[in-house]
Amino acid sequence: DFSQDSALKTTALEKLNSVFGYQSFRKGQQEVIHAALNKQDSLVVMATGNGKSLCYQIPALCFSGLTLVISPLISLMKDQVDQLLTNGIAADYLNSTQTFEQQQQVQSMAMSGQLKLLYLSPEKITTQSFFHFISQCQVSFIAIDEAHCISQWGHDFRPEYTQLGGLKSCFPDAPIMALTATADETTRRDILFHLKLQTPHIYIGSFDRPNIRYMLVEKFKPMEQLCQFVLGQKGKSGIVYCNSRNKVERIAESLRKKGVAAQAYHAGMDNALRERVQRDFQRDNVQVVVATIAFGMGINKSNVRFVAHFDLPRSIEAYYQETGRAGRDDLPAEAVLFYEPADYAWLQKMLLEKPETPQRQIEQHKLQAIGEFAESQTCRRLVLLNYFGEMRQTPCNNCDICLDPPKKYNGLIDAQKVMSAVYRVGQRFGVHYVVAVLRGLQNQKIKDNGHDTLSVFGIGKDRSKEYWQSVIRQLVHLGLLRQVVDQYNSTLQLTENAKPVLRGECELELATPRISSVITRTA
Ligand code: ADP
Ligand code: ZN
After folding, report:
1. 109 alpha carbon – ligand 1 mean position (Å)
2. Comparing C-alpha atoms, which of 207, 187, 245 is closest to residue 323?
3. Per the count of CB atoms within 10 A, which of 64, 327, 396, 467 is most buried?
4. How far apart, in whole angstroms, are the C-alpha atoms of residue 323 and residue 306?
5. Nearest to 338, CA basis, from 187, 506, 516
6. What is residue 177's predicted lDDT score, i.e. its pLDDT?
7. Residue 364 near residue 351, CB atoms below 8 Å
């Protein structure tokens, strides 16, 4: 019915203005709010920061009864409730941090109709006493945040979430809205299936963050490159992620030595200290936080100008989420990934040491995808967006590949030089050693091994170390060389495919090594 329809729209907009003080809806919000008000189930896939909360908070205000919000993160739950209370909305939560008396009090408020929104952690819903309590409430609407947690295929599976499938039969008249920021096709299907959503309205927002410039920088002297990059940011706020506490400390120290106000943040620090770092960062008293992935969940800072990854993240989802903390204010921001193939090999090795489970297999797929992202020679943004199922074809002109396209050259001679060197040193040495031989370095190890007398010694002295490293990486990537990694060493060996190249029986294109150690925005 048209007039009722437009009345609903007016009410939603009116709540947006009067309660939240915002002028207009963002993309997607209105349509999913509308679906909920029409009592339709829905699945909302929206990138972090685009405003998922309002999608269920506004219908919650329009319905006469209670809205249940299922959310797995207890700390965020409290933030949300506090924010709603500030806006004059009756909201509360039930979770394991509360005493029995506190929970009793919240429950009686809910039963007597004094609450509009009730936030719940998923494990609450699995208990018998909960169902007894909730059957005495008038539930109008149910929102399930972080809905990907229901899927084993997602990156954050939570067993309690599988219980949420019971909600539909419990409240057949209350529409359910499932929300998530990360969901590939399989996860989406899993959400619909497990929650038993009926003819749902599906909204899938764009994952593009056009103001973020994606840059990949090959690691040569990583610490120097990182410091140079951060100094180039001239005091702008940023986050550096790396994957060990030890490195976090070392990087923060190096940056401080160069005069950057940098602080470490990781799970090994006590709570008070972590909170202080977070607060100082929020208030711009700290310019750079160097962190393990533990940092960022609750952070809501809009002027983060750069996010640098010192190590390769474990998945594209993680990379996207972490880089997504940059440029929330829609102004230009930079995401820089420092990469070397050895990082990938290391992550893979760690993974293969775990017991072989379906979970491990999923993690392997995800690792492979981020590896392909790093090795890709096409627009970074296209690779990212295509990964999230948002098929695009037009390059973005705002990533390292678009701005500085890899140039090809006839790499046969270079490849032969490298391969001969690998062969002559007995296929028993790693990248650095082979490069040193190529460049004719007079070091003790080379002399002791008698490798300074080889015909290949010094045949590549006209090129830099980084140049040869890059050529070797490409040869590994092309399957002409193999990097064998054991506990202590990594050695280069020739593969079967190397023969025709060594004999000069084929052509070989390589990308001109891109050795830009400094990267600054040119625009
Ligand atoms: P998400 O849950 O998708 O990560 P949030 O719901 O936390 O995002 O919203 C991110 C920010 O955007 C919040 O500060 C929120 O108040 C703001 N916001 C959401 N919708 C609007 C809107 N229509 N107009 C202006 N700001 C909005
Ligand atoms: Zn691009």
Report:
1. 28
2. 207
3. 327
4. 8
5. 516
6. 98
7. yes
How far is CA 492 from each of CA 304, 311, 427, rounded to the nearest angstrom?
A: 41, 22, 6
Q: Whose CA is nearest to atom 18 of ligand 1?
A: 51
Rounded distance from Cα 213 to ligand 2 centre (Å): 8
**Does the model's ipTM exceed the 0.95 cut?**
yes
Helix (H) and strand (E) counts in the chain: 21, 17
**Own/partner long-range contacts of 2-11 (Cβ < 8 Å, ≥24 apart):** 5/34, 5/38, 8/34, 8/37, 8/38, 8/62, 9/34, 11/37, 11/62
pLDDT at residue 2, as a whole number = 56
| Total residues found in the chain within this entry | 523
Compute the distance between CA of residue 276 and CA of residue 340 in angstroms, rounded to an integer: 33
The contacts of residue 228 (CB under 8 Å, 6+ apart) are 517, 518
Low-confidence residues of the chain, pLDDT below 50?
A: 517-523
Picking from 191, 186, 189, the residue whose alpha carbon sits closest to that of residue 168 is 191
First CA to last CA distance, the chain? 51
User: 30 CA to middle of ligand 1, Å?
Assistant: 13
Q: What is the pLDDT of residues 265-310, one digit of tens each?
A: 998 999 899 989 999 999 999 999 999 977 766 667 889 999 999 9
Shortest CA distance to 239 belongs to which of 219, 257, 221, 212? 212
